[in-house]
Amino acid sequence: MCLAVPAQIIALLPDNRAQIDRGGLVEEASLALVDDDVAVGDFVIVQVGVALAKLSPAEAEEALALLAAAG
Length: 71
Prior knowledge:
Belongs to the HupF/HypC family. Helices cover 20% and strands 45% of the residues. The protein has 1 helix and 5 strands. It starts with a strand and ends with a helix. By secondary structure, it is of the alpha+beta class. It has one domain (5-69): SH3 type barrels (Roll).
């Protein structure tokens, strides 16, 4: 089973990609499926290296809290 998790964009890269921070783990993700404009500091929900949608800071905080509570 795969789980999509919130991540914060820390750099925009060429070819519609971004460097993201997932709780201290820095990696790259594709932004090809995100319809909204994104900027450094925005949150996105990421699954298997692909950002699926932009999240508000409140949505990201809530999702991260739920994941932390789940263990």
